[in-house]
Structure prediction request, 89 residues.
Amino acid sequence: MDRRLAVILGSIAFALVLGRGIGQAALAADVVREGLLAMLVFWCIGWIAGRIIDYLIQDSVETRFRQRLARYQSEVDSLTKQMPDSDQP
Prediction:
């Protein structure tokens, strides 16, 4: 998720700067330099945001999994307590 979001944000930033440069009839070298700088900055922002999103999703899924596992374990424990012992004659 982190690389994907970084690439998306970087590409959008570059495209916006490119569009602005075309609209203002700026020099191509200046537009490309500004576009690459914007791409780098927004790539870093996207990478950091993607890492945070990955962590939050993983933490949420793990928490829900552990809660569900504990609930199933308690149900199994209650069912085994209700069963008669087969060791007694």
In short: The two ends are 60 Å apart (CA to CA). The chain has a mean pLDDT of 88. The longest helix spans residues 28-82. The chain has one domain: 2-80.
